[in-house]
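This entry is retained here.
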Amino acid sequence: MKNYTLSWVVGVGDQAKGGNKKLPAWQDVEFHLDEIEKEGGSLTLNVVDGPDVGPQLLQVFSDNGRYVLSLGEDDGEDYIVRSYFNSGLKGSEYEILGNNWSGELVCLNFSVVKDAFEEFFLTGNVSRSLLS
């Protein structure tokens, strides 16, 4: 298992609160994921002292049951962002935390978000079937 830092912002505006933790346990990640599911916000899991090539971080933005999930990865030549793809929402647009997102990037199923974070936490990567 890799070493990570965890950072989060829970809530929006003046009510937002955040923090970070070095070397979190899975229970820490799960706790803050549950918080942003209920209250909105963002959560980022960064690889610490990992290889220069490969996945670097997993991030989610959450707002009213809508999630934008992305994985930042260095392939040795470029920095690539792999995202969740929702063909059912293609052609639509959603506002999440004040930013407009194409519907095809919006996940409506929180268990997908949780599964991606657990896979990343345990393996340091997320399968391409989940994030393309």
About this structure: The beta strands are 3-10, 17-22, 41-48, 54-63, 66-74, 79-83, 93-96, 99-102, 106-107. The two ends are 23 Å apart (CA to CA). The first strand starts at residue 3 and ends at 10.
